[in-house]
Amino acid sequence: MGVNKHFGGLHAVNNVSFTVEECTIKSVIGPNGAGKTTLFNLIAGYHRLDSGVVEFNGKTIQGLHAYEITSRGISRTFQNIKLFSRMTVLENVMTGRHVRTSAGFIAAALNTRSARNEGLKIREKARELLELLQVSDLEDRDAGSLPFGKQRYVEIARALAAEPKLLLLDEPAAGLNIHETQSLAELILKIKSALGITVLMVEHDMSLVMDISDSIAVLNYGEKIADGTPKDIQQNLEVIKVYLGDDSDA
Amino acid sequence: MKNIWGYLKGFILKHSSAITGIIAVILLQQIISFGGKEFMLTQLTMSAYYSLVVVGLCMLMGYAGQISMGQAGFFAIGGYVSAVLTTQNLAVYKDTAVLKVLGTIGIIVKSNDIYGSTLYYLSPMLALILAVVITLGIAYIIGVPVLKLKGHYLAMATLGFGTIIYRIALGTKIFGEADGISSVPGFTLIPGLLQVTGQTGFKVQNYYIAWILVITGIIIAQNIINSRVGRALRSLHSGEDAAESVGINVSKYKLYIFIISAAFAAVAGVFLTHYNGGIGPSEAGVMKSVRYVSIVAVGGMANIWGTVIIGTLLNFLSLRGYFGSYDDIVFGAILIAIMLFTPDGILRKFSFRKKA
């Protein structure tokens, strides 16, 4: 039994079930309105499941708040980038360290030694990530004032700052040009190989999906119609029909 | 030797704004005393306590992005609770065990009235603590349901809370109804040395007590803002989904900062009540809350020093009677003008962002 989500009469996610192997890149594709982002929101705790189970690391996580899911080791980015626009790039990434740090209100108010030391470590880690994503030169910029492509990198850095085991990328290539998409592909591969993070992404850019995915699930009208390696998916007749067929809405 | 200088330089740079603030406070007092206008210190002291409310509200509104139109309510709860506790004569209970125990541990003060009979009052220090604790409790109870709301709805709900407190103050006998509570005793911070009271002869020390409290409040607020907790609070302002995505418990942080800002208001309420020797229902009025909100807005929302400077200036002018009977209109008009023309406040462009 897979996961289900209704919005009124619309069965947005209909009995969808799949697994993501550790340290692989899995993509979810499908025409617009297929329920990909809804699926993401179900996993990350932004929508409540109507029925079904989400299991992560052997434990069920459905019904938890989004912030609890993040602390369990799942970080996400958003389709329409959501940076903290009133903060600098560095502060954005520092905020991403929240679940890996602990100083509370009293320690903060008194500016205790441990809070200060923790703050220094947060900054150090944030700078490391900015370096990894090659956006160090932007650290003092207002996050809201950056070009779109750079904002995406900052958002990924912020998500990585929580040291997730699983990274959810919601259309990471949307709005990027071909060169930016190319370097994004390299970055995602680096996240998998160098940081050992599992990646689950929703994406429309087929060349990106086919290039870097270890496996792909295809959704259509809220149902999973295929699941397999990029090669399998390219040859799957039903997928071809959905994307190219006569009554397709893609 | 070089090390000491290096350390000193670092210290001064790190605390430059607080040091500048302290120097400004001292200079202002010197100028006023030298000019023979010491009566002005009274209004500056009162302004300082109002500024403390504003510092708390600035954290809530300017940084965490949550509006409260009920700040005067919290101020009044602090003030009224402390006033009631320190003006009730407990002589009828003087033979009870509880009062004797309280007396031996020094939290009951005795004094004589003009007829020579002994009066027993609760110590203002205990009253301060109780007043703040009660305010925090009320802030918690109000905050849990109300903070589920956002924007205008949150403003309306907190406005409703403020109105309720005002009506309670106005309609309850123990709170003195329309007259409020008077002859609230001063309270001793250090016996024989520092006393919060409006009596003549205590003007200068009360000016400093008030301003030390404000600067302490500012330092605490800035420590919070520049910390892990502060980043979490500021993240709420840009969007709660994004804040949740980095693992921030949005409702917990909203509630905490709401309670902290209420604590600032309550402490200010207690001190000002003991300083003035009384409190009346106007302190709980809706226009007082509007005043605090408009000061935070003029100061630039997320700019603590800006709000304190503007707040002190406006409150001082208001208390000196420069706005005459147009007092409330002035603050209302300021709020409208700021929202229309410079939503980031007029001091915003002069504030420099602290490097992260």
Describe the structure.
The complex is a heterodimer of chains A (250) and B (356). Chain A has 250 residues and is an alpha/beta fold. Helices cover 40% and strands 18% of the residues of chain A. Chain A has a 6-stranded mixed beta sheet with strand order 6-7-8-3-9-10, sandwiched between helices. A two-stranded antiparallel sheet of chain A has the order 1-2. Chain A has a two-stranded antiparallel ribbon with strand order 4-5. In chain A, α3 packs parallel to α6. Chain A is globular, with a radius of gyration of 19 Å. Chain B has 356 residues and is mainly alpha-helical. Helices cover 67% and strands 5% of the residues of chain B. Chain B contains 14 helices and 4 strands. In chain B, strands 1-2 form a two-stranded antiparallel sheet. In chain B, a hairpin with a 3-residue loop joins β3 and β4. In chain B, α4 runs antiparallel to α6. The longest helix of chain B is centred in the C-terminal third of the chain and has 27 residues. Chain B starts with a helix and ends in a 15-residue tail after the last helix. Chains A and B meet through α2, α3, α4 and α5 of A and α8, α9, α10 and α11 of B.
Q: Which structural class fits the helix and strand makeup of chain A? A: alpha/beta
- Low-pLDDT regions of chain B: 349-356
Which range best describes the helical content of chain A: under 10%, 10-25%, 25-40%, 40-55%, 55-70% or over 70%? 25-40%
Order of helices and strands of chain A: EEEHEEHEHHHHEHEHEEHH
Q: Fraction of residues of chain B in helices?
A: 55-70%
What's the tally of helices of chain A? 10
Question: Segments of chain A where pLDDT lies below 50 for 5+ residues?
Answer: none
Sheet of most strands of chain B: 2 strands, antiparallel
Evaluate the radius of gyration of chain B: 21 Å
Strand order of the largest sheet of chain B: 1-2
